Structures are given as structure tokens and as C-alpha cells.
UniProtKB/TrEMBL annotation, chains A, B:
Domain annotation Alcohol dehydrogenase-like C-terminal: ranges: 268-388
Keyword terms: Metal-binding, Zinc
Organism per entry: Leucocoprinus leucothites
Protein name, as recorded: Alcohol dehydrogenase
Lineage of origin: Eukaryota, Fungi, Dikarya, Basidiomycota, Agaricomycotina
UniProt entry tagged with the keyword Metal-binding: yes
């Protein structure tokens, strides 16, 4: 274990000020260990995420100035006293994390040892403070304090402390080859995209199409003789609409393509955004993916009106089997309701605001719609997201190219301008380097 | 095949008149075959269902007088010309159904040969007219016309045309022993109850508790080493809240108990209704069920306020894993939201009205709630519901006892009074015998 580095007293941080649109780079104290479970991370890169815009615009119900950012990657520089060689009965990192280790954090804290965390629902740990909120200073800074760090962090220097479907040597080699900006996608947007795809694919209402057995036999391992149904090719066709092609929407699309290609599920996907530059990005990403990663299904990137016509044509008016709503507002939900079939599912991973839902109980009853809302349990999704990150370095490994999710890496002097341009849709995902 | 019986010209029928609360027994024409796929059924029994009350109260948006009722059992008295010995490529009943056969119908028509029906989503067949609506005369009559009858009906005289998990001899013997009033429960309320339970049990957000593997490993057949989590007994405990103990709510509860007992899943169930007589009925039903049918979990029947406290106590404030909302109004949905845990699921099988949903997108996001709405695909659920009907004759085989779902069988002269008393909660489920 390396010796704790001596920390400076002050640091630079990107901070939001109320009521809205006010981003400043300020000198603030460097955080110290406050609790024996804390880790202090020296941030290498901190990213700007679409959900930062809720607070930026003053829509977050927040009135307290704070350091922004819930996506960061960095190096451990100090650990609380609960990190020791034999922290038995606690998450593995309490015994193995060392000063000097490279870590990535999910966007929320999770203790890793409560009932909710054990179930894998790490996004709703009762200790689950969101980084970059009044409750917890964020990672768009030179240093950040991570509470419950043995449950929260992933140790990228010691991949034996977590596992994936990849062999250890592949995992180790991948880690040494993948850039920090690429690994930073594991903090939020990549697991959130995988989460959206996973919920749709595993929803019971999608099961008949995937299993080729009608509801409710799709849940039974045994075929009950006399109830066989001869499915046609079109019955087995999964029609997916993905609404919103910001960075998370692109991740959800790439993840969905990968699942469908890997499992050889026939599909047709329409990826939808009203903004042309986002559609162009999605097309460039799709063109980049190799044949094994995108399978042989149909794939269209369309505006809203075009998409309505396309889903109608593809499904003879039946509608999409599943909709991924990756925006988080009522018009996107409304579009989802319009596109989804009876007995279809709408998965919504966007951060929704306070307006009432745009559909009534009667409408949901009349179409037998299922809705799955909520925040990604990023810590639990990490291994699956990591595997996709390794597979899809053609997409996730690049910066500033037409097919890359990350538009640019800038220094803190460009913070306010980057927020402004990102809010206006003039730039894609921006990453801050706090040390340049 | 028996010869078609000669049908009378007129019959007695229970009819609703606008705007509300106006039930009359009237002489109306006996229906005739209008389409080659039609069957005419001589009704033996027709039942009154909670969802009939929407139209009765004038809440259904209906302005046209019509014959009521979507639950009926009877005998085939006429068939369209598409019923013939070799109707190849069509649902089996077109080749095998005969005049004289005893049949039960699901509450909606389903063709059995479209994409939606093949998937098992028979409740949303594009031809899926609801019996007892302006679109299709109902079964509270002496005769009823069943469109798409080869796809819609179940032939209880010839159980080889459908299948269940039961051996054929058990099935045949059961059919000869089960009363018509008991079989009539297959038209709607029993499959709807089974549907509610099935959706909850198979929802992906319930999977960690059932599989004992955390999200998202619960979807993987292989355990990925390094991600094992030691679940405690309380992590494996499924907490279910069932809101609404009308006949469908009781069926949902009996079905849920049966699934949990059969699969040996540890559980605690709270069954909730504000009306004491319904709670007493639920308790009597529970006491009737044998040990194999109710397993060894905790089971409480409580009022709303008691239930809130109980779920809090049972789960240390985490909330119910799944909620079955078997009412169909906003206060029931609100209670569901309050009781459900983060990453929980609310299954709603009630017929909802036009009011906006009582929860916002922000609330659903903040709790990662899943909602599954809609009408039961009763035709598809029939085999599973039949098996439960056979198993639970201790509950479903009785009339007029404290533990029976069916309160009384009456003649048509008591139609208006029965609607009134059922609407006021003064009687339980009522069945009409049109021939007494």
C-alpha cells in the first residue's frame, strides 16, 4: 500500500450557483476523510452529463451552490481507517483498496451491504447520495470525497476484486488498453444504456416474441401439449423504438444491438431523435460497429414523424414490442405510448420532472401497457457495462470523431461555455480535465 | 354432431339503459348466426362482475342500451358454416365444436389466428369486442352470439381440444365433477386473478428475490464468479400487497398463494380492503385452503391503515416487493405507490377511468417503480386458471357459504335489485339463471 499523499488545502472546482445557468470555477477546500468508510479521489477526468442540465436549468428543485458532476475517474489519495487488510464481512474493497489505485465511481453512493444493495438495486441504496448535488459535492473538481467507498467504487487497478464474463487475462489486457475517457463512460451513461436494454429484453410481456411460446407458456420450461402455437417469422420479430439519441440513447442502442446480435433474436429497431446532429451521430456509430455487434436486423434512424410511419409499416399497425424512453419528459412518454403495441413495454431511464404523466389509467389499461421507470443501479450494472465497453471500443474508445460519444476533453476555463453549448445541443458529451 | 336446435324468436335479457342505474329485463330477439365463424350459445348461467358496474354507474362513456354481461357458460345451439370437419389451418374448434357441446367464453372475443392472439395476448385481439357492451350483446340473456367462436370458446365437453398441466384423466374427471357456477369463474375473474399474480412473479424486478441472485445476475444462467452475494433470509422474502378483495382480488390472492406454495418461495402477504365484509370473506377463504395450497408464509388481511403499518414492520420500512392493484382507481394506485419498495412492481388489472394518474414521472423515477396495466388475456390464461380451479374446489366449488366467491344464484326477476345490492357492496358475486 502506497503512503497517503499529502493533500493541498484548496482545489479548483466547477460549481453551480442558484437560481440557474450560473457555472463558476472556484477555489474550494480539498475534501478530507470525514468517516472511516471514506475515500478521497484525485480526479483525472470528470464529465458533463445530460442529467446535470436539470440542475443547471434550475429545474432540479435545488437552491444551494455546490460542486457539479457525477461522472469521474481518478486515483485514490486517502482512505479512512476502515480500509485495512482484514475488513472481514464487509465489501471486498475495504480489504483490498490502496492509495494509488485507479478507480471509477458510479454516479451515486451505495453501501454494498444493505438489503437493497445485496439485491443489486444499488441505485436506491438508502445511503445513495447523488454526486454533484447539495447532499454530496461532485466530481468536476480536482478532488472528490467518496462515502461508503468500499461499497461504491470499482478498482480498475485490481480487476480481481470484481468480475465479468470475460476471462481474467482479457479483462486485464483490456484495462491497460482502454483510455480513461472511455472508462469514464462506466460511471453513468453506459450502464444506464445497458440497464434500459436489459429491462426491455427481460420484461415478461416481451417473452412470447423472444421464446417463441405464447403467453403464459413463455414462462414454462415444459411445453404443455395441446397449446402449441405455430409462430410465423413476423411473430418472432422484435420491434424496438428508442426515443432520444443523446449519449445515453446511443449507449442504449449499442447495448440493445449487441444483445440482439449475440442472442440471434430477429429485430427491427427505429432510433428516434428530432435533432439532426444526434441522428447523424447515431448513424455514424452504427456504421462503425462490426457485423457481429449489430446483427442482421433492420435499423433506421429517423425523426419523430418518420418513425411513426416506419413502425406502422413494419408492424402492420400493431406497434413496437418495446420502447426505450431515454429523454425524461412528457412528450417523449407520449410518443412512447403512441408507438408501443398493446401488451408492450415502455422502459424509461430518463430523469423525469414534476409534471403529471401524459397518459391516464384508462389509456394504459386499454393498451395493456407496462412502464418501467427509474435510475440505473450503476454499480450492479458495472460488469455487464464493462464487457460491452471492451467489445465496442470501436465506438466507446474514441474522442472527437463522428462516431464517438465523447465530443471533446477541455480544461476548467471552458466550464461555463461547455455547459452553455451542451445545454443548447451545440456540442456532444464534454469531459473536463481538472489539471490542464 | 347433433342437429341444430330450432331457436325461438324472442328471449329474455337483462339490459342496461342510459344514462345510469337503469336495469330492465326485456324481451329481445334471439340472436342468429350472422357470420360463418359465429356460434349461438344457449346460456345456462350468466354472472355479474365488478367491471359491469362501470357502465351501470354511467362511468363507461356508453350511451346505448344493450344486453349486459361478459361472463357466461352454456351450450352450443347453432354454428356458422365455417365449423366443419376439416377446417384446416384454423383454430381447432372450427373442426371439432358441435351443437350440444358445453362451452365457456372469455369475456372478450378473440380470433385466435392473428399475430396478437398467437402471442397469447388474446385480450387485445383487434376483433376483441367485449361482451355486454354496445359493440356486442352480452351473456346475461337466454341466448348469446359469439363471434370468431372457434378462436374464442373453450369446449368443456371435449377437453382434448385444449390442454393443461393436469393428466387427461384428471382433467376429464374434474370436468364432470365441477359445477357450472364454478366453471363460470373461468370467464373472467379467475384468469384475471391468475394473470395478476403471474405478472408480478415473472417481473424482472422481482427476479433477485426469487432467484437469490442480485440484479442483473438474476437473468443469467451462469454465476459470474466474483460477483456472488450472500443473501440473507430476509433478502429472499417476497413481500406482496394485494389491494382490493372483491372477487378478482380473492382470486389473485388464492393464485398468488398457490404459486408461492408450489414453488416454495418464502413470502409475507398482506391482503387489503377497507370493507370489513370483504376482509371477512378473504379470511374465510384463506382458512378453507389446505396447507399445500397456502404454504407457510405469513398472511394478514387488513384495513388500509393497518396494512401500511404491517408492511413497514415486515420490511423495516423498505416496502412491498410487488403490489397487486385489483380495484382500478386512483386511490388504489396511490396506496400501491406508497406501499411498494424502490425497484418494486405494481400490477394493475382493474379497469381504470379517465382521471390522470395520481403519481408523477418524478415519483416513479425516484422509486424506480414498474407498472403493469391492463386487461387479462382470459383465453390464453384459461388452462392455468382451469388447473387452479380444479385444485381449489374448496374455495371455487361453493355457493353461498362464508368461504365461497359466489354469493347466490338468482333468476332474472331479481336482476335490477341484484345490480343495486352488488353496487352497494351488500352482496358478493351474483349469478343469473335465465331459465328459472
Amino acid at each position: 500500500m502506497a503512503s497517503p499523499q499529502s493533500l493541498p488545502d484548496t482545489q479548483k472546482a466547477i460549481r453551480w450557483h442558484p437560481p440557474s445557468y450560473d457555472i463558476r470555477v472556484e477555489d474550494v477546500p480539498v475534501p478530507r476523510v470525514q468517516h472511516p468508510d471514506d475515500a478521497i479521489i484525485k480526479v483525472k477526468l470528470g464529465a458533463l452529463c445530460g442529467s446535470d442540465l436539470h440542475i443547471y436549468r434550475g429545474h432540479g428543485g435545488v437552491s444551494q451552490a455546490h460542486t457539479c458532476g457525477h461522472e469521474f475517474i481518478g486515483e485514490v489519495v486517502a482512505l479512512g481507517e476502515n480500509f485495512r487488510s482484514n475488513a472481514q464481512g464487509r465489501p471486498a474493497l475495504y480489504s483490498s483498496l490502496s492509495v494509488g489505485d485507479k478507480v471509477v465511481s458510479p454516479f451515486t453512493v451505495n453501501c454494498g451491504e444493505c438489503h437493497v444493495c445485496r439485491l443489486g438495486y444499488t441505485g436506491r441504496c438508502p445511503d445513495g447520495y447523488l454526486f454533484g448535488s447539495p447532499a454530496l459535492e461532485g466530481g468536476q473538481a480536482q478532488y472528490v470525497r467518496v462515502p461508503r467507498a468500499g461499497g461504491t467504487l470499482f478498482n480498475l487497478s485490481n480487476p480481481s476484486t470484481w468480475s465479468s464474463a470475460l476471462p481474467n487475462d482479457v479483462k486485464q489486457k483490456a484495462l491497460s488498453n482502454i483510455s480513461d475517457s472511455s472508462l469514464l463512460l462506466l460511471a453513468d451513461i453506459l450502464p444506464t444504456g445497458v440497464f434500459a436494454a436489459l429491462q426491455a429484453i427481460n420484461h415478461p410481456k416481451v417473452a412470447p416474441v423472444i421464446t417463441g411460446k405464447p403467453w403464459p407458456l413463455c414462462f414454462s420450461k415444459d411445453v404443455v401439449p395441446g397449446n402449441e402455437v405455430n409462430f410465423t417469422d413476423s411473430d418472432r420479430m422484435l420491434t424496438i423504438a428508442i426515443i432520444g439519441l443523446g449519449p445515453v440513447g446511443v449507449c442504449a442502442t449499442v447495448s440493445m444491438l449487441d444483445v440482439l446480435a449475440t442472442r440471434d433474436i430477429p429485430f427491427q429497431i427505429v432510433a428516434i431523435d428530432p435533432i439532426e446532429s444526434r441522428r447523424e451521430k447515431m448513424k455514424a456509430v452504427y456504421d462503425t460497429i462490426d457485423a457481429a455487434g449489430k446483427g442482421s436486423g433492420k435499423f433506421s434512424v429517423l425523426s419523430i414523424d418518420e418513425a411513426k410511419v416506419r413502425v406502422e409499416e413494419w408492424t402492420n399497425g400493431v406497434g413496437a414490442t418495446a420502447v426505450l424512453e431515454v429523454v425524461g419528459n412528457t412528450s417523449a412518454l407520449n410518443l412512447g405510448y403512441e408507438l408501443v403495441r398493446a401488451f408492450g413495454v415502455i422502459v424509461s431511464v430518463g430523469v423525469h420532472g414534476a409534471p403529471p404523466l401524459p397518459v391516464t389509467g384508462r389509456q394504459l389499461y386499454n393498451k395493456n401497457v407496462s412502464l418501467d421507470f427509474g435510475r440505473c443501479p450503476a454499480r450492479a450494472m458495472f460488469p455487464m457495462a464493462f464487457d460491452l465497453l471492451v467489445k465496442r471500443q470501436d465506438v466507446f474508445g474514441k474522442v472527437g470523431e463522428p462516431a464517438s460519444l465523447i465530443d471533446r476533453i477541455v480544461d476548467f476555463s471552458q466550464a461555463a461555455e461547455s455547459y452553455r453549448a451542451f445545454d443548447k445541443g451545440e456540442v456532444g458529451k464534454v469531459i473536463f480535465d481538472p489539471w490542464n
